[in-house]
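Why do we bother with holo predictions? Because pocket geometry can differ from the apo form. Keep that in mind while you read this record for glutamine.
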Amino acid sequence: MEKTNLQLNITWLYPKEMSTYGDRGNILTLKKRAEWRGIKVNIDEIGLKESVRSDGNDLYFFGGGQDQAQDIIAKDLSEHKKKFLVEESDKEKVFLGICGGYQLFGHYYKDNRGNEIPGIGILDVFTVAGKERMMGNIVVESEILKDKLVGFENHSGKTYLGKKANKLGTVLVGSGNNGEDRTEGAMENNVYGCYLHGPLLPKNPLFADFLLKAALKKRYGDLELDFINDTLEHTSHEKAIERAYKTR
Ligand code: GLN
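The structure, written out:
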């Protein structure tokens, strides 16, 4: 396919309320790695009380946030966005959720006061607040990428996978979904969620390109992304893994 005039539309959910620990870096990474290939990127920031614009979105991003932020946005998510986002997930659009955003892609997040914060159920997972915070560097073996994922986790929520969800990977260093079953993250159709802050994508270039290809596929079919010199990103990936093994 002639790779001219390619376009990628990204919708960023609750950028002000849910972008803890620099998760906005994932948006920057997707944008730059697409633009370096000559792909035009449009980013639509959707906050409280705003409905998602429905003109051909390709990828949705939902960052992390503390329990209080999740509580604030959950009602809005259910009332203003859930129906449309579920329809988009049924069309196999790409979603990436990190930590609090990941939790709200699931059925619910029960916080440490027992409040059940409703999610939108596009991932067959549920989360309950644990007594300990799971915090520190994390390394995960990812079957889909045949590579490792590295990042930083900071959550008290313990996420458990239902039958329809697959793990994103297996924990090599750190706690992962719940510190019990060595699973980390979840994926179902084209919905991906995980606990890796850092932000995730700058240090995991293979996953960034995997998501870009999946998001472009709906509009343009299978296409190979042009080569870019991302030696620096791959080196930082390896160094971050080395450091994670030393520090946990
Ligand atoms: N409030 C959730 C928890 O602590 C998510 C926190 C986050 O997004 N880092 O598990």
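The longest helix spans residues 67-90.
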